Amino acid sequence: MLDEPLGQLDRGLRERLVVELRQLFGRLGTTVLAVTHDQGEAFALADRVVVMQGGRIAQAGTPLEVWQRPASEFVARFLGFDNVVAATVSGEAADTVWGKIPVPAGSAQGESRLLVRPAGVRMVPAADGLPCTVTARTFRGSHVAVLLRPVGGPQLEAECTLRDAPEEGAQVGVAFAAEDVVVLEPLAPDSSDDDDSRSAGDHGGPLKTDRRA
């Protein structure tokens, strides 16, 4: 069992050790349980990831499964996805405060919570989508995170290339891509009263990572 194995290392050394640890675990042919609050570390090390909420399993699966399809709003927000709103799903579209958003075929119907990943928030000419104002942009290495303030509803986060990033204060439109939309299970009604859940939601709940040979 490893408890925060790379937590105190600088980024370059941490990234090198992730590769070496995965190779070592494979050679040893043993199962390793690692506990960490660092999502990047967990997803890089593990074959399977378990997200804990209030001492219970909120979701378990491969890193790709958990990242692409968070099971609940708790898991989505823990992974850093904040584009979450109430929605009513009917067919292949959902009514939200951001307007009508396409959802993948086969999505659960009725009232729910909806996640739009930043990659699915597409900036278009202001006249062609949900009107928004660019309030901030942050360079993230491989992309730029852009914060958008729509006319109505909570702010949105989009991502784009540095070349395509609009200036702060710019007026843009927003369209949504169904492949980056996830219909979530709602938060449990009593989740706000759970000390572990509140701590995990504010500061990052524990991730257990299982590396099997």
Task: Describe the 3D structure.
There is one protein chain. With 213 residues, this protein is an alpha+beta fold. It folds into 2 domains: 1-72 and 191-213, P-loop containing nucleotide triphosphate hydrolases (Rossmann fold, 3-Layer(aba) Sandwich), CATH 3.40.50.300; 80-186, OB fold (Dihydrolipoamide Acetyltransferase, E2P) (Beta Barrel), CATH 2.40.50.140. Helices cover 22% and strands 38% of the residues. It has helices spanning 11-28, 39-45, 63-68, 73-78, 195-203, and strands at residues 2-3, 32-36, 48-53, 56-61, 84-90, 93-96, 99-102, 110-116, 121-124, 130-139, 144-150, 156-160, 171-176, 181-184, 207-211. Strand 1, helix 1 and strand 2 form a beta-alpha-beta unit. The protein is globular. Residues 191-204 have low confidence and may be disordered.
Which keywords apply here?
single chain, 213 residues, alpha+beta, Rossmann fold, OB fold (Dihydrolipoamide Acetyltransferase, E2P), 2 domains, 5-stranded mixed beta sheet, 5-stranded antiparallel beta sheet, 5 helices
**How are strands sequenced across the largest beta sheet?**
1-2-15-3-4
CATH topology of the largest domain: OB fold (Dihydrolipoamide Acetyltransferase, E2P)
Specify the structural class. Answer: alpha+beta
What is the radius of gyration?
Answer: 19 Å
Unreliable segments of 5+ consecutive residues: 191-204
Output mean pLDDT: 84
Structural topology:
Layout: E1 2-3, H1 11-28, E2 32-36, H2 39-45, E3 48-53, E4 56-61, H3 63-68, H4 73-78, E5 84-90, E6 93-96, E7 99-102, E8 110-116, E9 121-124, E10 130-139, E11 144-150, E12 156-160, E13 171-176, E14 181-184, H5 195-203, E15 207-211
